[in-house]
Amino acid sequence: MGLVSIEGIHVALPLKKSIKHASHQRTVSDSLIVRVTLDDGTIGYGEGVPRSYVTGETIETALDALETAEIARQLESPSDFETAVNRIAAIRLPSIQNDPRGMFGNAARCAVEIALLDAYGRRFNRSMSDAVRQLLSGQSYLRARPGPVRYSGAITAEGARKERISAWKMRIYGFQHVKVKVGVTGQDDPSRLRRFRKILGSSMDLRLDANEAWAADELLERIAPLRESNPSALEQPVPHRDVERLAELRPQLGIPVMLDESLCGEPDALRAIDAGLADLFNVRLSKCGGIAPTLRLIDLAVQNGLGVQLGCHPGESGILSAAGRHLASNLVGLRYVEGSYDRHVLAENLTAPDITFRYGGRALPLSGPGLGVAVQSAPLEQMTVARRELAP
Ligand SMILES: [Mg+2]
């Protein structure tokens, strides 16, 4: 059951609301969709979200990485699902010089890995959950069977009125966990958090994401006035270049620290564990290179007593939402889960059926072969910016 073709498709997913950056606004989210075809005609789809400010990748570099990877040779022709899963999990992209953090190519690897798991799942009539369970077999944190997932809500920095509405929505919608973006210039975070805490109530698990906002030297004084709102975790408080400073600062913060931008590959994870830089890891499928590498990072976290958040990339399509669901529904003890925002974020999706989480952020495991959702050809055509046939 060999691989006969790989196509890389650059898509622009239309967003419901524009995402504001310091320098520009964008109303679409760019994804790399990979479409693989097996020799019996079975097709599978995968997705990666190359972001130059996360792993240094662009759509172009991701396509280049796949072009020379000789995936068909790495896979050979697996005759059963278990063999296919083991070979897919072992796929390596050609190593790139000057990549000490082991992250260039992660979005590309994620896209092709998910596409292959989807295709071989369909070919052998097995769910992506079965693949996840095979890779987790023997681990204490594998669930007895796939179970429901509880996703977290998020409040972005948008101005007092909109934020207040957003906080009320989180409460009314019944979320248990809410993440608040902090550290945006011009925002008064201590009073924002007091407001949110009042609306959300004292039992809501409220955590913060600073997206590298603060210099290490100012961190303690920035954090002190936020503690009264009782946040449960603080994500990526300092820029990656200052991350070593967390060894000395973390014990003084009084809030558990989570690494995100500083946690892309195994070298990052090992360094963070060795130097005591973090209490939690934020792993995301595209950032970390797909399901198999993400499971390795989760294992490192668990073995070393760290908590884990399964995160997502805002704007990702239902392909990555589905893959994330297969992971989350088979793991015990994830501290936080993000993703499956589909209908709330995208004006139109690539996949059907709709798997957006429901009331309370609740969602059920997916079944059916492969991803358990199907890519629709009409929206895929519409959203396509460019496509490239790659050497399999
Ligand atoms: Mg983050």
What key attributes describe this structure?
alpha/beta; 4-stranded antiparallel sheet; Enolase-like, domain 1; 2 domains; TIM Barrel; 392 residues; single chain; globular
Written overview of the protein:
With 392 residues, the protein is an alpha/beta fold. It folds into 2 domains: 3-125 and 377-390, Enolase-like, N-terminal domain (Enolase-like, domain 1), CATH 3.30.390.10; 149-375, TIM Barrel (Alpha-Beta Barrel), CATH 3.20.20.120. The chain is 35% helix and 21% strand. It is built from 15 helices and 16 strands. The chain has helices at 59-67, 71-75, 81-89, 106-123, 128-135, 160-172, 189-200, 219-223, 246-253, 266-275, 285-288, 291-303, 318-328, 342-345, 377-383; strands at 3-20, 25-38, 43-48, 149-150, 153-155, 177-181, 205-209, 234-235, 257-259, 280-283, 307-310, 336-337, 351-352, 362-363, 374-375, 384-390. It has an 8-stranded parallel β-sheet. It has a 4-stranded antiparallel β-sheet with strand order 3-2-1-16. A two-stranded antiparallel ribbon has the order 4-14. Strand 2 and strand 3 (43-48) form a beta hairpin. Helix 6 packs parallel to helix 7 (189-200). The protein is globular and about 60 Å long. The chain starts with a strand and ends with a strand. Bound molecules: magnesium ion. Magnesium ion is lined by residues 209, 211, 235-236, 260, 282. Magnesium ion binds next to loops.
